[in-house]
């Protein structure tokens, strides 16, 4: 029997369309000649940590059944970012919100995204009980959005979650975090911000029937001005450089030669 | 030069056989030979249990035994030259001295071709790893034969090219080994066989002569195309030292989908429909039967499909598409893929769309999963590529790599299983599984029998049964792995006497003393 006191959970999962890094690990991100950004003319897909976030929301529903009332995915980005929402919907989210930005505008920064999310959360009639986000996006690696959102909303936050257990009756959640030398468990009250770590789960494949169903699920379109927010960047990128090229190795014939080479390179004392 | 031919001509059919069985005898490597090799090679390039090198026997075991630990040689000496000149000098010496040589690449071959039968000298190409040239305009890459396939792929990636072949062993196999086995692999459907993409070869012939055919021409009609003979010769005609190969432009957008089929009979109509819908962007169509899938998943190869997607599936098909350009084509590709998926999952309206199919009002697939990210793309491929490894983790594998009509794939697997059952061998302590998977696009089935141990009893149940089965389909007993030592006796199931006789004459022409990889390909 379902506990009567339980409030039905509404879960929001912000997702980011990011530069697809690799199919082959060998495909490299290239820095633009002006050193202000990277070549974005490559493949895109959902940020992997965000995929984990969607998966976790869907798993919560599988576990808690009807106690999860809604799972909404949201993205802020150009028209093409809608693909990412379709992926989220195919994985099992119920509906989506697309805050569409012009194709030409620069990618929004964490603070802008956090403000947009706050505005969105405040618009939700049924409220939001749980926001699950990736701990970072692997294109800019900022790793700030979740924390900023928690600050703006004044909600508790549990970052780098490797396990999440939600108790809707008590309106609280237990989160396990991987820390240096072990695991740390924290207990938080809902509403709550959770950011996902790599080992939280392994995202499912989207099955064809679910991809078909996803096409019929609603995507609400909004503009930044609908939310009364300004996404103009406040940070200036001064320079992006590629990591130094790896030097080719060489083979040595003997231990003595190895030591001599190490000394030459100044790695061991003379 | 054609002395052998004259002999053969005059002999009646039965004598040809007997003649073929008389193996020439070879001289073992001696300390005197080692002294000569020390003049040719630096000390680090010689491994030998003989004095004065005295390498421990254990250090030679990776060279003497094959990847599956099925074939075992007793060679005393492994030479690892760095240059074509060194190879040439070694071979000249061995030819004069009557020492037999086994060329060895990454030793990932599956038919025992790369390990000695007795104590032949092993010539490993592993130290020949230079990329000689690359032309980013034509995509032609010229490399030493010892370059690892994956290393060449990595080299090409920043130039937006890919190797025209790819296979599960890519991290260990060498381009010279690939050419010598005429490896097929996962990209053949799209880029064709090595007979097309290899443009030139440098080969050290069995007398030590260097045959330089390392051209970088796409077109060259100047008489007999000799290099073709070395593609798939499995080291019996000479040692490939350099390869010139045409790389393909890297597809900018790839995607894959794993489809779950209710019954095997749907594979062919599905293949037809997929070809029709995806046409030039179709780059792979791989078949996996349910048992092969389960073995792969059991041994942790790739991420398993969701349970509800596997339910009721008799087999799976992995379809890959590769599009030309970026964003724009990616959308086109997605659209086509979606359209296909629409068609495949639509049950009622199937009639109008698939009227040509046999059972038009039944869906061809139960369901399927479409990769959503690069990680999932690799995970789906890992299931297919991981079967070889899963099979060998599960037990001892009898591997039959056959070409037969695609419509008979399942029948061949079922008949083989039945054969083993009728011999009472289908039990946990004998044969554990009979699985089928392979390259539907190329008509190539991998029929694998997983046993608890290699036993004469199982072998007798399988051979010549499987070869006769293949012959009954007018198929090939070796689609892509080659003949090696495993199938020399079975060659007549696929090649007629005239063809075999010509092969023997060619062998005698290049290698009159028979020192080059004896006992392989031809008996
Ligand atoms: C996991 C796995 C997956 C595989 N998948 C496929 C597949 O999809 N398709 C396929 O076709 N094969 C496949 N194979 C088998 C395939 O034949 C080999 O992996 C590969 O092509 C052999 O290369 P190698 O460098 O390891 O050669 P080796 O195994 O060392 O040698 C193979 C043969 O070539 C000869 N040889 C090697 N190098 C030279 C040279 N430089 N000059 C002259 N002769 C030489 C050897 O004498 C031997 O006869 C697979 C093997 C494994 C282990």
Automatic annotation (TrEMBL), chain A:
UniProt key word Electron transport: yes
Alphabetized SMART domains for the sequence: ETF (SM00893)
Superkingdom as given in the UniProt entry: Eukaryota
Any one GO cellular component localisation term in the record: mitochondrial matrix
The keyword Transport is assigned to this record: yes
Cofactor(s), by name: FAD; AMP
UniProt domain Electron transfer flavoprotein alpha/beta-subunit N-terminal: residue ranges: 36-231
Subcellular location as annotated: Mitochondrion matrix
Family matches, as InterPro entries: ETF_a/b_N (IPR014730), ETF_b (IPR012255), ETF_beta_N (IPR033948), Rossmann-like_a/b/a_fold (IPR014729)
Keywords for this protein: Electron transport, Mitochondrion, Transport
GO biological process: amino acid catabolic process; fatty acid beta-oxidation using acyl-CoA dehydrogenase
Molecular-function GO terms, alphabetical: electron transfer activity
Cofactor binding mode and count: Binds 1 FAD per dimer. Binds 1 AMP per subunit.
Function: The electron transfer flavoprotein serves as a specific electron acceptor for several dehydrogenases, including five acyl-CoA dehydrogenases, glutaryl-CoA and sarcosine dehydrogenase. It transfers the electrons to the main mitochondrial respiratory chain via ETF-ubiquinone oxidoreductase (ETF dehydrogenase).
Similarity-based family: Belongs to the ETF beta-subunit/FixA family.
Quaternary structure (record): Heterodimer of an alpha and a beta subunit.
Name assigned to this protein: Probable electron transfer flavoprotein subunit beta
Upper taxonomic lineage: Eukaryota, Fungi, Dikarya, Basidiomycota, Agaricomycotina
From TrEMBL, chain B:
Superkingdom of the source species: Eukaryota
A single Gene Ontology CC term: mitochondrion
Pfam families: FAD-oxidase_C, FAD_binding_4
Keywords, comma-separated and alphabetical: FAD, Flavoprotein, Oxidoreductase
UniProt keyword Heme, yes or no: no
One example GO MF annotation: D-lactate dehydrogenase (cytochrome) activity
Cofactor(s) the protein requires to work: FAD
Domain FAD-binding PCMH-type: 71-250
Chemical reaction(s) catalysed: (R)-lactate + 2 Fe(III)-[cytochrome c] = 2 Fe(II)-[cytochrome c] + pyruvate + 2 H(+)
Family: Belongs to the FAD-binding oxidoreductase/transferase type 4 family.
Name recorded for this polypeptide: FAD-binding PCMH-type domain-containing protein
């Amino acid at each position: 029997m379902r506990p009567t006191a339980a409030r039905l959970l509404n879960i929001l999962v912000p997702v980011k369309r990011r530069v697809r890094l690799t199919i082959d690990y060998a495909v490299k991100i290239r820095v633009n000649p002006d050193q202000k950004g990277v070549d974005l003319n490559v493949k895109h897909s959902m940020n992997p940590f965000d995929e984990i976030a969607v998966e976790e929301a869907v798993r919560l529903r599988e576990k808690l059944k009807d106690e999860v009332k809604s799972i909404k995915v949201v993205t802020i980005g150009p028209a093409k970012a809608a693909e990412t929402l379709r992926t989220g919907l195919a994985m099992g989210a119920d509906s989506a919100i697309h805050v569409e930005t012009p194709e030409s505008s620069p990618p929004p920064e964490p603070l802008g995204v956090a403000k947009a999310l706050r505005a969105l959360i405040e618009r939700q009639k049924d409220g939001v009980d749980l926001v699950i986000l990736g701990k970072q996006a692997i294109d800019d690696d900022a790793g700030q959005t979740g924390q900023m959102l928690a600050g703006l909303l004044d909600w508790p936050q549990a970052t780098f979650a490797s396990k999440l257990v939600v108790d809707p009756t008590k309106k609280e959640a237990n989160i396990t975090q991987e820390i240096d030398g072990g695991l740390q468990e924290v207990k938080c009250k809902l509403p709550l911000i959770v950011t996902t770590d790599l080992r939280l789960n392994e995202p499912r494949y989207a099955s064809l029937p679910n991809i078909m169903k996803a096409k019929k699920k609603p995507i609400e379109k909004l503009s930044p001005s609908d939310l009364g927010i300004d996404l103009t960047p406040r940070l200036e990128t001064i320079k992006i450089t590629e990591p130094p090229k790896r030097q080719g190795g060489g083979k040595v014939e003997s231990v003595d030669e190895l030591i001599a080479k190490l000394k030459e390179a100044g790695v061991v004392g003379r | 030069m054609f002395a052998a031919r004259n002999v053969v001509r005059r002999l009646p059919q039965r004598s040809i056989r007997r003649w073929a069985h008389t193996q020439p005898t070879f001289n073992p490597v001696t300390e005197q030979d080692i002294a000569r090799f020390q003049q040719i090679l630096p000390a680090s390039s010689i491994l030998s249990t003989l004095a004065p090198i005295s390498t421990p026997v254990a250090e030679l075991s990776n060279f003497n035994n094959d990847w599956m630990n099925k074939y075992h040689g007793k060679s005393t000496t492994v030479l690892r030259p760095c240059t074509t000149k060194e190879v040439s000098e070694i071979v000249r010496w061995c030819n004069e001295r009557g020492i037999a040589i086994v060329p060895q690449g990454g030793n990932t071959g599956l038919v025992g071709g790369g390990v000695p039968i007795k104590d032949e000298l092993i010539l490993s190409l592993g130290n020949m790893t230079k990329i000689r040239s690359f032309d980013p305009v034509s995509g032609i890459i010229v490399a030493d034969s010892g370059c690892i396939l994956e290393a060449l792929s990595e080299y090409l990636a920043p130039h937006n090219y890919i190797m025209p072949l790819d296979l599960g062993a890519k991290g260990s196999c060498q381009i010279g080994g690939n050419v010598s086995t005429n490896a097929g692999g996962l990209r053949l459907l799209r880029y064709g066989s090595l007979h097309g993409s290899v443009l030139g070869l440098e080969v050290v012939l069995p007398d030590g002569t260097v045959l330089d055919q390392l051209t970088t021409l796409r077109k060259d009609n100047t008489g007999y195309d000799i290099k073709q003979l070395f593609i798939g010769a499995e080291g019996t005609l000479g040692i490939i030292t350099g390869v010139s190969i045409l790389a393909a432009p890297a597809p900018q957008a790839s995607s894959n989908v794993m489809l779950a089929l209710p019954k095997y009979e749907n594979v062919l109509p599905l293949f037809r429909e997929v070809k029709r819908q995806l046409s030039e962007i179709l780059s792979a169509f791989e078949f996996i039967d349910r048992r092969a899938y389960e073995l792969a998943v059991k041994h942790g190869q790739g991420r398993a499909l969701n349970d509800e997607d596997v339910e009721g599936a008799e087999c799976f098909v992995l379809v890959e598409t590769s599009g030309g350009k970026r964003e724009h084509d990616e959308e086109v590709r997605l659209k086509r893929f979606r359209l296909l998926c629409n068609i495949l999952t639509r049950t009622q309206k199937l009639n109008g769309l698939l009227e040509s199919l046999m059972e038009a009002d039944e869906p061809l697939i139960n369901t399927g999963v479409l990769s959503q990210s690069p990680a999932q793309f690799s995970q789906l491929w890992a299931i297919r590529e991981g079967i070889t490894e899963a099979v060998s983790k599960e037990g001892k594998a009898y591997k039959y790599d056959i070409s037969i009509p695609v419509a008979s794939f399942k029948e061949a697997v079922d008949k083989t299983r039945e054969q083993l059952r009728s011999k009472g061998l289908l039990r946990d302590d004998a044969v554990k599984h009979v699985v089928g998977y392979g390259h539907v696009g190329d008509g190539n089935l991998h029929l694998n029998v997983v046993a608890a141990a290699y036993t004469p009893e199982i072998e007798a149940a399988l051979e010549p049964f499987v070869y006769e089965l293949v012959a009954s389909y007018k198929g090939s007993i070796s689609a892509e792995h080659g003949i090696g030592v495993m199938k020399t006796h079975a060659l007549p199931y696929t090649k007629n006497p005239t063809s075999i006789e010509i092969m023997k004459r060619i062998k005698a022409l290049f290698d009159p003393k028979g020192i080059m990889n004896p006992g392989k390909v031809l008996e």
